[in-house]
ABC transporter domain-containing protein (Bradyrhizobium nanningense), 243 residues
Amino acid sequence: MSNDPNALEITDLRAGYDASDVLLGMSLQVGSNERVGLFGPNGHGKTTLLNTISRVIRPRAGSVRFMGDTIDALAPHKIVARGLIQVPQGNRLFPDMQIMETLELAAFTPHARKELKANLDYVLELFPRLAERRQQQCKTLSGGERQMLSIGVGLMCAPRMLMLDEPTLGLSPKLKDELAQAIAEISARGIPLLLVEQDIAFILSLVDRMYLVDHGEITREIRRGTEVDHQEIMDMYFGSGGA
Ligand SMILES: Nc1ncnc2c1ncn2[C@@H]1O[C@H](COP(=O)(O)OP(=O)(O)OP(=O)(O)O)[C@@H](O)[C@H]1O
């Protein structure tokens, strides 16, 4: 085991699609018990960053260390097996599958299989709405229930770290609060988090630190407790005419 204090360490990561460069050299760290946010407008590379960390996209340069080990040469399923789990944006669930089937299927690595019962109990306790609807097909779930199930799928993979891509997209304030509580509870179990969000108030309520992402680069880091000028952030990202 290494003495690396960081769960995740990214150095000068570059990636893109065909002729377009999207990540222009991103470096960041997530501590071993930390909640870190990524905030920035649409299309500036946050999802590309998570996909590159998970190796769904091959980086053009740079390096990723997870729990002290370089994971640059690993295939995506090996990264999942190590416990670095991405909960993707949007509805990536199989529409005809039931909640329980979906959760059980997610525990596909040997380690996750061993923890299946405990993790299933945890997910159903964390999200009682899922427990009440356990035989319901994914296509019939509400937006909030789908987000809960997506996080549940991530938890069934036995995560040592979670990367959540806009988990509250399109949800009502009440549902956002419910999800914030669940995410805080997951973090309190000692699981480090990298959280992508567009809702500045939501992200600031949850994270220890936040990186601002602008056109494929990290332009600033804001620590919890730092006085944040919301208008300044909005101006910087959306122009001084307002968002
Ligand atoms: N599969 C793809 N092929 C080509 N270009 C892509 C692909 N996926 C994303 N892009 C482009 O890469 C850029 C960054 O997109 P990305 O989804 O990473 O941004 P984002 O900051 O996560 O925004 P959002 O919150 O809207 O998802 C955008 O210009 C997008 O059009």
Residues 17, 22, 40, 42-48, 89 surround adenosine-5'-triphosphate (CB under 6 Å). The first strand starts at residue 6 and ends at 17. The chain has a mean pLDDT of 91.
